[in-house]
Structures are given as structure tokens and as C-alpha cells.
Amino acid sequence: MRKIFFCIVAIAMMTACGASEQELFDEGVKSLEKSEFSKAIGYFDRVIEKNGSNTSAHNAKGVALFQNGNFDEAVVSFTNSINIDSTSYKPFFNRGNAYLEKKAFKEAVRDYNFANGLDPEQTDIYYNRGLALLALEEYEDAIMDFDMALQVNPNQALVHFNKAKAQLGNSDPLGGMESLVYSINLDGENGAAYYLLGVTQLSALSQKEDGCANLKMALSLGYGDAKTWVDDFCQD
């Protein structure tokens, strides 16, 4: 009876009493949801030991590695998942996110394109691809992606903010200022948005009063880059 009881407890704890592939995977997901990333990786590794063709386990392991900041290893896991089954957008999207963190922007765009082709209804793809395109200074394409994200939910302060950066990069200060105002209205604590708005008002339109007011607001929110502009252009 003690032996049977031990095995029942051990199965519940996912130790070595014959836990199934699905049980191990489910425990890995639970650990992932609890932000116990190293523990989750251990469970997913055990799933892969049982079945190296479990594409979901490779993808989930990649997510755990990504959340743990191990972006190179995450890329490997997502690639393993893709090599097993290239019909799901998820590992392409996830690998794109890992490349984005690694600042490998061309590779990120490539994977987001694959993910978008597999499931164009996944709107997170548009925003993340927009960030990669912005980093590549492909401003018009970035604006298109940010607009797609805003069609789904217009109340996204960061999307408006990054769209503004793309518009300013695309020599559209009026459009950029409009997007910055939207961003600030949705999130009045974004010092970078006040800073960028103030700089644009001063440099593009010579709007000293409004520009200085926004630069001072940015400085009050802890955005230190605003100090030079305030000191140079906003002293009475």
C-alpha cells in the first residue's frame, strides 16, 4: 500500500512514476502561468524527451525561455517547433518577438510576415511588425501596421506614440503631433511623448509657448533629455 500511495503522490508531483506526455505539458503550462520559467522549461524538456515531435512543447519551451530573457535559446526552440509544423502562426510570431528583442529587425519582419500570412486576424502581429519596421526606418510600412492595430482598438497609447515616431521619421510633423496628442490623452504619464511633442512644436513650427510647456511637463515626469531643451530654449 505504501508503494501504491507513493506513486500516486509522485504522479501528482510529476516525478518519475510515469506521468504522461499531456500531464507533463499541462504542468509546464501551469508553471509558465505562475512565471516559474525554469520549472516550466524542465517540464517541457521532459515532454520533448518523450516525444521530440511535440511541436507545442517546443513552442512553449521557447516562450518560457523568452520570458526568462534567454532569447537565443528561445529562437532555437521556436525554430524546432516550426521545423516540425510550419502551419501555425504562433512559433513564427514568437520567434519574431525574440528577434525583435535581439534587435535582429529584418529577421523579425520576415517572421511576422509568415505569421500574418498564416493568420491575418492576429492583430498583435501588426503592432510588433510595426516596431520592427520603425527600427528599420521603413516608416510608411510601419504607419500602415500601426493603423491596422488601431483599427481594432484605437485606445492604445503606445501604438499612437510609435505611429507618431514613424510619421515624424516620414517628414510629417503635423501627423506626428496629432498622434502624440492622442497618446498623451490616453496616457498622461508618458514623458517621452511630451518631450517629442515639445521638440516638434519648437523645431518644426516655432511654437515656443506650447513646446516649452510640453518639454517642462516631460521634465517633471522624469524625462531627463528634456532638460537641455528647457535650458536652451525655455528660459524667460
From TrEMBL:
Gene3D superfamilies the UniProt entry points to: Tetratricopeptide repeat domain
PROSITE patterns: PROKAR_LIPOPROTEIN (PS51257), TPR (PS50005), TPR_REGION (PS50293)
Sequence ranges of the TPR repeats: 55-88, 89-122, 123-156
Protein name from the UniProt record: Tetratricopeptide repeat protein
Keyword list, A-Z: Repeat, Signal, TPR repeat
Lineage of the organism: Bacteria, Pseudomonadati, Bacteroidota, Cytophagia, Cytophagales
Signal sequence range: 1-19
InterPro entries tied to this protein: TPR-like_helical_dom_sf (IPR011990), TPR_rpt (IPR019734), Ycf3 (IPR050498)
The organism's place on the tree of life at top rank: Bacteria
